Automatic annotation (TrEMBL):
Keywords: Hydrolase
UniProt-recorded name of the protein: Alpha/beta hydrolase
Domain (AB hydrolase-1) ranges: 39-273
Listed InterPro entries: AB_hydrolase_1, AB_hydrolase_fold, Carboxylesterase_BioH
PANTHER family membership: HYDROLASE ALPHA/BETA FOLD FAMILY, PEROXISOMAL MEMBRANE PROTEIN LPX1
Segments forming a coiled coil: none
GO MF: hydrolase activity
Amino acid sequence: MSKPPTLTLPRGARAYRLATARGDFAVHDAGEPRAGTALLVPGFTGSKEDFIALLAPLARQGFRVVAVDGRGQHETGGPREEAAYAQEELALDVLAQAEALGGDVHLLGHSLGGLIVRAAVLRDPAPFVSLTLMSSGPAAISPAQQARTRMLLDALAAMDMEEVWQAMRALDPPEAADAATPPAVRDFLHRRWLANVPEQLVATGRQLLDEPDRVAELAAVPLPKHVLSGTVDYAWPVPRMDDMARRLNARRTVIEGAEHSPNAERPKETADALAAFWHDCRAAGAGPDRPVSRFPG
């Protein structure tokens, strides 16, 4: 999971519930849309706070940035039934969020969020002017992470959320020890885990295990695309993301010093790369009918 470097919203940002045709979603919202609006969708076990360090630098570059808790995540909540978290349902939520924001939207998904936003774009690219897949690959996660995810699914079937949290912490590598995490962030990660709807975790965990390769479908969508990652990734090997970018004819950005969460690990460099891509899209008048090709670059 991403560990936000801070939990303090930047000046001018606000937390509220975004009303949509598919319900209300907890969001962080910063900036004015002088250069456009960006919708940021978090990954498995994540939340809007994963993007908190991107809000100020992107707002300074002229973007309205809206990071969302998806259905069943953290402060949004959701029903206690797995069918509510089918990928198609989550994709429809993203489309409803974009509609509620209005105008043309730059769409970004991190990790599992990349699979969800891909499904949204494949269903209807019209609300979007670009798509960024951050630390998200072409299909199911790596074999090692599949094994870890199956362990989690088994644990969720047998234990309550607190018991699962304690079991996960026992499996963390030494470098992920709580002593290296600020107490406020450590407490937040615990609270966030307990706030997740278990059925959401089960349904989306299975998506990570079973996701087919839909890159060819996405490549046929006339929308400018961007694949961004760190130099190391445990969920999808970086060479797989390189290949996905080539197949998509997408801009490819690798953030030095970052791993699976460049949004939290190297936020300034990540924000600069995102803003550059989005500004280029605007300069080219890009959208569903006029894509921008940016691979390599």
